[in-house]
Each structure stands twice: as C-alpha cells, then as structure tokens.
Amino acid sequence: MSTSDADDSAPDIRAVPMKVFLGYFLGLGAWGFGGPIATVGYMQRDLVERRKWLSPQDFLDGVALGQAMPGPLAAQVVMWLGFLRARSWGALAAAIAFIAPSFVVVLAVAVAYGRYQGSSLVQALFYGIAPAVMAIIAIAAYKLARMTNRRDWRLWTISVVLAVATAWTGTEIALLFLGSGFVMILVDAPPRWFRRRDRPALTIAPVAAIAWPVKALAAATGAGTLLTLAWFFAKAGALTFGSGLAIVPFLRDGAVHQYHWLTDAQFLDAVAMGLITPGPVVITATFVGYLAAGWQGAIVATVAIFTPIFLGVVLPGPWFLRHRDNAQIQAFVKGATAAAAGAIAGVVVVLSQQIVTDWATAGIAVATLAVLLRWKIKEPYVVAAGAIAGIILHWPW
C-alpha cells in the first residue's frame, strides 16, 4: 500500500456531512446523562471506534485541551470536534446543537419551578433533593482532589487552604484560583523570563476579551440585571477549572450573596437541575438566569457562561497542540484545579449549615454519601431517590 493510499484511508472528520455531524451532537445533548466523563466516553465510542470519523489522537487532543482550559470537559470536546470539522463556525454549531436540548429542558423546569415553588409538593421534593445534592458535591470535591493532588502535599495544601478560606468567609475568592496556579508555576516551572506569550494567563484570556467591555457598558449605561448577568456568568465560565461542579462556589457567591438573585435553597435546587438533566452541569446557569430575570435572563446567562469556554477552545486550539507539554501550563492547571477542589469542599461546609437542619435531612445526606462511596450510581438516580425521600418525610400526609 502506498503512502498516498494510507493517507486517503485515514479518518477525516471534514468529510462528514454537516447535517449528520450536528445531528449526532443534538442527540447526544438529549440523552447524554452521566456527567462529563461518561459523555466523553460516549463520543470516543461512537465517533472514534464505531463511526471512525476521526483518529484516536485527534480525539485525545481535544480531551487534553479541555483538561488544560477552564470549562466543562464534555462541552469542550464537542467544541473541539466542531473546530476540526469546520473551524470556528463548526465549533459554534456543534456547541449549540449539544447545549440546546438541556437548555430547553432546564428552562421548562425553571418556568414550572418559578410558578409552583411554594407548593407543598415542590417543597417536599426539594426537602430531599437538597441534602442529596450536597452529598454529590462533596463526593465531587473528594474525587477531584484525589485525581489532581495524588500524593503531592503542595497541592493538598492548596486544597486545604481554599477549603478553609471558603468555609470561613462564606464566599469564593476568585483571585486565589489564579494565585494557586501561578504559585505552582513558580514552584514547578519557574520561567527564565516572563514574556507574555510564555505565561499560562492564556487560560483566562477569553473572559478578558468580552467581560471587561460588558462591565464597562453596564457601568456607562446604568443597565440592569441582564448586563450584570452577562458579566457575572462570563467570569464564572472563565474560572471553572477541573469539573463542572467547580462552578458551584462562584455561582453561590454571586447569585446568592452578591446580587441576591436566589436564596441558598433556590441555589441548591438550581444545582440539582443541572445534575438531573442531560448535558453539562453548568447548564445550571439557565436556571439561575431565569429566576433572576425571566427567559431573557436564561438566554443571557447561558450564552455568557459558554462564550469564554468556546473562545478557550477555538482561540488557543492550534497553539495548544504545539505547546501542550509546556511545564508552566501543566503547573498552572494543577494549582488551579487543586484550588477548585478545595473551594468546592468549603462550599459544602457553608451550605450544609443551612440545608441540613434536622435529623431527616442529615440522614438523607449521610445515606447518599454512603451509597456514592460504595457504588457508582449516576447522579440523576441519586437526586430522584432524594426526591422520593423528601416526599415520604416532608409531605403533609
């Protein structure tokens, strides 16, 4: 076989018809339950092994990029595959197809929630859901820390410091995330010189391109909630390292304490919606946006949170492939992810004080922790079990 024949038989995602390409991601967004790792596994199975749309290396490049940049891994891989198919427009189209089903579902649930949240049924449901979600978040923090920190006492120190700081102050300090990343650069890969192109600050460049103009416009025009939502969720999308649930500390600090869009109870309900629906967990932004400013707020929050994630794929994509082994980038990602794990743990402490208020909610939280530590059960089933427990224990029979 000649070299040209081998090249001709190699997978080429650009040859896939766009209608078929987008149809797959629309379906994935509708049935892709199980979290980011499961969703990435579906794509690897379907597109690399079965359909042979692309080579294993092309797929792994997307996974590597997602691990280095902020944002939910599954959405990043989807955008990367779209980027390979048709550059920036392909990435945008794939992202819309993947996100649209979960957006529609969460928006519909948010509308119903906004209308009926005071009813006895909804109160009973979320009486059980809230402590179950707390347990899920706690397990996520533990798994993220264990995966990232391993036996590195420096990373464990970062996680502990962020956990204590978040629990003590009750708020998320975004600069500590970035500071943790730069500390690890100085420890593991101190540069000979700090030229701009060598800095891993590229990881937060996407938000700088859109968030500061949005904030300036809001200040200049006196615009209200919609621009504030855009600014807030753009920041959140640019600082979500390590896991979709890493966004929880940022959202709680802004949505509950800084802007008072939601109560703590409503916030936990929003996180639950992100867990039990298909697609990325950060679709929680849709729920928060709707409660803050109606359907317009839902759209603005969703677009804002995914924009820096999108830019974090299409802008540095080609550059990343050339420099993904850069020691400074790897050090920054380790430090920021260790900080994310600690912040999630700190939020668990803060929220537990308000959610676990009696023996029943404590029992649901402990039982959920025990089940998740013993068996690998998908989050939607765990949340559903919490809802059933809430009806049994809190329904006015």
Topology diagram in text:
Blueprint: H1 3-9, H2 18-31, H3 36-50, H4 56-68, H5 73-116, H6 120-149, H7 153-169, H8 174-188, H9 205-221, H10 225-238, H11 248-258, H12 264-276, H13 284-314, H14 317-323, H15 327-355, H16 359-374, H17 379-394
Overview of the molecule:
With 397 residues, the protein is mainly α. Helices cover 78% and strands 0% of the residues. It contains 17 helices and no strands. It has helices at residues 3-9, 18-31, 36-50, 56-68, 73-116, 120-149, 153-169, 174-188, 205-221, 225-238, 248-258, 264-276, 284-314, 317-323, 327-355, 359-374, 379-394. It is globular, with a radius of gyration of 21 Å. The protein starts with a helix and ends with a helix.
Point out poorly predicted stretches: 1-6, 194-211
Helix content: over 70%
Q: For the residues shown, what is the average pLDDT?
A: 80
Computed over alpha carbons, the radius of gyration is 21 Å
Distance between the termini: 75 Å
What best-fitting shape do the alpha-carbon axes yield? globular
Q: What would a concise description of this structure say?
A:
The protein is an all-alpha fold and 397 residues long. It contains 17 helices and no strands.
